[in-house]
């Protein structure tokens, strides 16, 4: 499976979606928050995003300006003939190691990426077998370019996790599944993980520097920001209940602590931004 669209301006359904193949997304121009899992990326022209498989994602665009992007969807199996050659560069390693990753290309790097994408478009336009083959070869060149720009991060020494870190990874994995449960508490974590409450609390704080429920509430508030952005019709109370808060006052207090404004004011600021009113100071997370 290989699908390439160059400088696409077409409409899309603004909903979270996922797919079983890899994606290379290049942002040419527009105003866009790209939501991938629980992260919000504020995009600038020249940003290139790698996406690995089934992570939920959705672009949130400003429709008042052109939204232009180039996208490649591909099954990594189509590259097996190349990646299994002796001395082949592991061009899929950035996808496999980082899962989802953004490269901020500027200057000559941006020019080179756009040159390769344009060349891919020219090969695709031929519409024959030679054009298809050269399109794939040009895409392989793009993956080499991406791999090259990821060298520093890829070559960082990554030590195997200790037993403590493995246990914390298990805790985090469980929290990712259960964080919206309004009955989530230390007793339920103890039952699920077969470890004492005191040990779970101690080891999580030791490894992460945060308590378990500091992590849970940070996750919930970030998800609330995403829901306010994607589904502005939802009431604050509904968002709070969806994310496991039993009491609106608790949700509002934590939201203001983390974001700096109440959820009601945050919603109003997003509405003003969508209406083209002067900026109100809403800050979205970026990485």
From TrEMBL:
Keywords carried by this UniProt record: DNA-binding, Transcription, Transcription regulation
A Pfam family of this chain: HTH_18
InterPro entries in UniProt: AraC-bd, Homeodomain-like_sf, HTH-like, HTH_AraC, RmlC-like_jellyroll, Tscrpt_reg_AraC-type_HTH
Protein name: AraC-like DNA-binding protein
Gene Ontology molecular function, alphabetical: DNA-binding transcription factor activity; sequence-specific DNA binding
Residue ranges of every copy of the HTH araC/xylS-type domain listed in the record: 169-269
Gene3D superfamilies from the UniProt entry: Homeodomain-like, Jelly Rolls
Superkingdom assignment: Bacteria
Classification lineage: Bacteria, Bacillati, Bacillota, Bacilli, Bacillales
